[in-house]
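Submission sheet (multi-component)
Chains listed below:
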Amino acid sequence: MTWLYIFDLIGCGVFAISGAILAHEKKMDGIGVLVLAGVTAVGGGTIRDVVLDAPVFWIHNPSYLYAIVLASVFSVFWLNRMKSIPAKALEAADALGLALFVVMGTQKALSHDVAISVAVLMGMITGCFGGMIRDVLANRVPLILQKEMYAFCCLVGASVYVLLNPFHHLLAAALAFTTVLLLRLAAIKWRWQIHVFKYDD
Amino acid sequence: MTWLYIFDLIGCGVFAISGAILAHEKKMDGIGVLVLAGVTAVGGGTIRDVVLDAPVFWIHNPSYLYAIVLASVFSVFWLNRMKSIPAKALEAADALGLALFVVMGTQKALSHDVAISVAVLMGMITGCFGGMIRDVLANRVPLILQKEMYAFCCLVGASVYVLLNPFHHLLAAALAFTTVLLLRLAAIKWRWQIHVFKYDD
Amino acid sequence: MTWLYIFDLIGCGVFAISGAILAHEKKMDGIGVLVLAGVTAVGGGTIRDVVLDAPVFWIHNPSYLYAIVLASVFSVFWLNRMKSIPAKALEAADALGLALFVVMGTQKALSHDVAISVAVLMGMITGCFGGMIRDVLANRVPLILQKEMYAFCCLVGASVYVLLNPFHHLLAAALAFTTVLLLRLAAIKWRWQIHVFKYDD
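Outcome: structure written.
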């Protein structure tokens, strides 16, 4: 599906930009930008494919690397001129990329005949683990371990997908995509958080 | 072997609890608990399987994920009520899990026809690398790199296994298990440490 | 090719020493030395092989593990007696190891029929990602993300290799090797850096 593939590349590009921005914040330079952009964009999908023992998706299709390099170059020029990238635009694009990654990750896992709980986990890994590695490389506690609505949106969206998929493939994908997107945007807008621990302070 | 499988799930659960406790300490929340619990429990075995190019053990058996979720939920409830989990009980359970993981990891590696030195390493990776990733995600220097008796117990136990295995499978497993367990408990009780560097201070 | 294999083991040993030195700096002990030495030496190649879905190179040839153990033991004795390892000698040896790793990584990737951009990336991963994991385990921002000439040398050398390889295999390898080596030594000697961001301060 061509439009899906284009969306996928856009998702990669947006994730790559978030990596490049962190590299800029941490005062890294050229290679730091490329590496953080790269792991954010393809880290989650790579772990998914390796664990599923599927061919890693970017090995036989270098378009993903080109998207990362392009997004990195764009980020460097933009950050040098404007000093920052508008947070709202980035968050919206990131939510879009996340929604796509979760649906495609869950789909790919199901096509490898895994249990639905494993498929849901794979959807979350595809969406979140790239950003987690990005944060580890920048030597900070991963955001997704603290602001849990990010990964929570993935889990809900992936669950929607696996539940509806036996009835209608396309509808399942569309609804799961919408769920992640809206839930994520709502979580950003109204600052939703879920607290499981009662801390004294 | 059913009892081995049950022990394995218990090992996963105990390792998961140690991940959940660190998430609590670091003031993470829901997803942080699940992710730290998950990587601690299955991280080592996942790396072992990926490196051996064996199917990742939890991909076609979601029981491990259920054990992690169960242990996480238990930890959250317990920590909210009691504020801490008794260190001694946890250490004993952790030593039990460690002993099991080391034996099973070494065993699995040997069944892939690797050299015995590689099998010993795989036993250590199975037992220790989950906790190492847990510590990296929580942004601290991994404990096993500092308190070396942890990984050292794994190396000794795995060596016992590979040396006795040609003579008697079950005896080798039983003795290796006992070695890791007793060595680890002794190291905790008498605060054994091995120093290879002479630091001036 | 025997001399290539011997060089490869030397490369492993040198990388292992750099891991052991960091373990010493961070006041780690026995296992910390072995683990940091090990991930620095074989981390990059392991990621390359896992992503290419090739058998991990050290699984069926434990010589690499022996080289790591030997280098670790040597480092411990040396550091205990001399307190430091001469920086210049180590840098030269490291540049040699890097040049070898890049050529072999790119070569291996090409033999798996990947696009040349992917092969260049694999050359860089083989040379740099071991040191990156070492730094993450020692809880510091990876050096290669900051001093970019390190990874940049790999990218240039790997590019030389993929461009010349269709014409003459051995010449391509020799020139790529020389490129990485000289570029890296020049970057150290004249403190070359590439800045892509204009920071205000």
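Remark: Chain C has one domain: 2-189.
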